[in-house]
Amino acid sequence: MEPTATRRTVLATGTATVGLLAGCVSGTGDDNEGGDDSDDGSTAVTMEPVGTVEFDSVPETWLAYESDYADMGVALGVGDGLQAVGEPYRFHTHYYDELDIPYPAEPTPLWNDGVDKELFYELDVDVHLVDPNWLEHNAAFGLDADDVSEIEEYVAPFVGNTIFRRTDEWHDYEYYTLYEAFEKVAQVFGREDRYEAFSTVHDELLAEIDASLPDEDDRPDGLLVFEGSNEPEEFSPYRISDEGAGNKHYRDLEIGDALEGTGIGGLSTSDRGTIDYEAILDVDPDAIFLRGHEDKSREEFEETVLEYMADHSVASDLTAVENEQVFRGGPIYQGPIYNLFVTERTALECYPDQFDGELFDRDRVAEIVRDGE
């Protein structure tokens, strides 16, 4: 099956409908690798797997499934146009509260025991910041290639690429880093100035980290897992070595992958395997990073999850538990704002002798979001 080619064929014969409903024409097949603005205010953005999408004007309303793309939109100052996200509990607005920047309080959830095709018609946004293959290849969503093509033809185009992990077999086309994807979204909204400003803040943070990281022997090997309960027993493993955007902070902090050489793979749409405390004890990582607790404070996490592990007959023998090196793992979906906060937090937790205080300028970030300067 070649879904990209199918979409381009559909759109090549249905551009009048797309132009009428969405104010754009999608899927031209142009090999242009970036955004191309014309004198009449239209723009073209090229991103795999869809290809080139042409906009007659800047989209005003939009949605995202993965909240990394929602975070990109908020960072670009267009959060007021966000109508829906996949799962609102993964849209971590407490970061925005700390920055005192605007965001939509209650975006519509796309997920409700599946994804309803009709909801896309009801929302009627100008652009879907979603990888269409993500919708098509997740069996739990209940959508197929025809559904996705219909949404693209009769509602609005897709611009997006699943970037948070790189373990899905169906993702056999180009991947993008967090900031490469962020640049594409900035082109969609004509907010390249904000993208450039965020890139500067990001680069300054990484330069500070690189200058102070401890020697390799003093960096931990970490185990990254997901389990959202306060009394966890089984965990979905992720590979820290996975180059997806969701693991960016681990790579930037040069934290090792405790599962290297074990044969244990990472979570994907086709691999839903789990590991228990016995399996973790065989690896005995220096640190454990547990996803699913992003809305807890460090104190709340310690008083629930870490306390449970410390009293557990097997977990209590883990080096990471004994040394209190069990941490919140950060959002699965990381946009530029989430990433700044999580990189800082992980640096402070893993390398307390090297880092303290705030590692990036909150006021500067808020200014970029609000004013683009």
TrEMBL record:
- Supply the InterPro entries for this chain: ABC_transptr_periplasmic_BD, Bact_iron-sidero_bind
Ranges where the Fe/B12 periplasmic-binding domain occurs: 65-331
- What is its subcellular localisation? Cell envelope
**Pfam families to which the protein is assigned, alphabetical:** Peripla_BP_2
Which parts of the chain are coiled coil? none
Q: Which UniProt keywords apply?
A: Signal, Transport
Protein name (record) = Ferrichrome-binding protein
What organism does the record attribute this protein to? Natronorubrum texcoconense
